[in-house]
Design a protein that fits this description.
Chain lengths: 346, 346
DNA sequence: ATTTATAATCCAATCGATTGTATTATGAAT
DNA sequence: ATTCATAATACAATCGATTGGATTATAAAT
């Protein structure tokens, strides 16, 4: 219990001045003369004073805390986004509470409750795969707590988002496969309640159309994109009545699962089937063959979303205008999709 | 600013009772009769009352917040430990602030400062590779804030730790390589300020001794165990005047870097050189060949450390007895170390 | 009915910082 | 020296919940 408990009142008593002056001095108010400020600051330093944020925040009814909800922190995109969030938040005097929904709506709901109970000043949110309704976000709206979606957003009105151009990325990935000579390209898609997967799919379709490739509905396989789903998808596509020669997977994990299985079956990658993933997980550069994928600027997404959120917090509830920022993804070509004939061309 | 701002005083006013009674009712004190409790609880529910933790915590001078410092959340051990921490903490009414030192002492120092400023009730800590002195932990000691090391601990007196048996793991890994017929085993070690690397090294040495294998000092290569270090280490070991036939790396990342390089050089794994890593990163199961490694029970480490920390917080500063809990690691045999002659035996 | 013991509730101070208003100090102008 | 404007500081309420002590209500005992 001997926590150093220096308060502004201690400093005030010692210097025989009022605590309000101490408070103002420590906040660099111009209502205190420089001489007194110096005296107070020196004494504060000497005593090892640290402001009690609880008291300060109670008075100001602000917590200087942001909530971050992600499906799981172990995913590359999210861990790098979190790094960006933390850097920006700390720099601007905010703390961050990080929570994982583990892709479960139920947990996401609870987390929102916890964040409300903790009276966070704002929330950054990347929704779970199970998030099909948004009732749990009502509490945030009601209490006028600003929130910004990043990456995995929702199509509800008046929200701010920081996204990447999933449509473009889907298009680029598919175009790349077409450029490698693929004619029958399977797309591993994710739950269609998530806009990102819808958009990646749209990009895929659009590329097929532009390059005059016939679209077949059964070439789209929807799953939760776990590793095991990749394996299952691969089994499925081998049973299709077409000779599949390309896969565009909406994430790396499923692509890797598929590749593992296909390799076991003696199928050569990229010669028989070229594969493109999504997210540029660190593992994608290390597997055999290395995986062509879409790099998402995670750190920048985190930074941007945080900056946007904090600006909304500062603006206050007055005119919470929604804003959507879309960042550019980037195709990384690796061995899993580069056909021999291509490299032979150089 | 229309945040729902129901306070105990609102409830008190409406029910024409005192706010202290409301407070006691909401805390289920036995100084309030059940009838009044029911009335108060019903009204609180009706109004959507939520306790203001700032005020409550200020009064109780507790924050119900734990700080967690890890080198990086993207590492498998840490992300799974954090999952364990969160589960336990939330269950016991605590929040968690997660911070990454990114292996930098300077950042670790700042983080401790931030956590102090936020008056966390306790800290869970896995130190950075650069942490060679512990001055920055003095602040915690002075203020009697309990802290528990997990995995990467420090050899300073009277600390609580939750660790795995790195010595045993090092021994098991090395013994396994010896069992595969390896005679010249290189050990990739990490910074020796960290006990974990010292202990893994000790286990290695001990296994060599017991199996009567000559120890050579130049078979120990120390680095920061990044992927690039693994590559460099591999180059080094090819220049050694012995025919190396085994590698025991103190983490998976460096092992993988080495394997990539060795494969490029046409060296067969495990036939020419068998490799064992450490940590069971998800990637280790997916690379080619899959990597034999040591699995650390990350989730359990996180749970155990949190339980220990919270129990210390509850005990108070009175008799903060230190305690060290050591969990068992587990060797996972995969292709990178299983020699043909072995499988031939079956 | 009155006393007494105990249960139930109320009062008021407190946690530490902030902030609008009131007061005093300072110095310039007359 | 006195007045006045302004700068500097002090006072006191406030944020919302908690808690020891005081007071009142209730019921049991005489």
């Amino acid at each position: 219990m001997e926590n150093n408990k220096i308060t502004i009142h201690d400093i005030a008593r010692i210097l025989k001045i009022d605590s309000s002056t101490v408070s103002r001095a420590l906040n660099d108010s111009d209502r205190v003369t420089q001489k007194t400020k110096d005296k107070i600051l020196a004494k504060a330093q000497e005593l090892g004073y640290q402001r009690n944020h609880l008291a300060s925040n109670l008075r100001k009814s602000k917590t200087y805390t942001l909530g971050v909800i992600v499906p799981r922190i172990s995913r590359h995109l999210f861990s790098s986004a979190i790094a960006g969030v933390e850097e920006t938040a700390y720099k601007m005097g905010y703390n961050v509470i990080i929570c994982q929904s583990l892709e479960q709506l139920e947990r996401e709901r609870n987390i929102v409750g916890t964040l409300l109970a903790n009276r966070v000043d704002g929330v950054l949110l990347s929704v779970s795969m199970e998030t099909i309704n948004y009732d749990h976000l009502q509490g945030l709206k009601q209490r006028n707590i600003p929130f910004v979606f990043f990456d995995r957003h929702c199509n509800i009105s008046d929200n701010s988002n920081v996204l990447i151009d999933d449509y473009q990325a889907g298009f680029d990935a598919t175009e790349h496969l077409i450029g490698q000579g693929c004619k029958h390209i399977v797309h591993f898609s994710g739950p269609q309640n998530l806009e990102i997967y819808k958009n990646r799919l749209k990009g895929y379709l659009s590329a097929l159309q532009i390059y005059d490739i016939e679209f077949r509905k059964d070439l789209i396989i929807e799953s939760r994109l776990m590793e095991i789903d990749g394996v299952e998808n691969a089994k499925l596509l081998l049973e299709l009545p077409y000779k599949i020669d390309g896969i565009f997977s909406a994430n790396d994990i499923a692509a890797i699962g598929a590749m593992q299985y296909l390799k076991q079956q003696g199928i050569r990658i990229p010669e028989d089937i070229a594969v493109v993933g999504f997210s540029n997980e660190p593992i994608s550069a290390l597997i055999e063959p290395s995986l062509t994928t879409i790099d998402q600027p995670g750190f920048k997404i985190g930074k941007t979303a945080t900056t946007l959120l904090i600006s909304q917090i500062h603006e206050g509830a007055t005119k919470m205008k929604s804003e959507t920022i879309i960042l550019k993804p980037n195709l990384i070509e690796r061995k899993s999709s580069l056909r021999k004939f291509e490299s032979g061309n150089y």
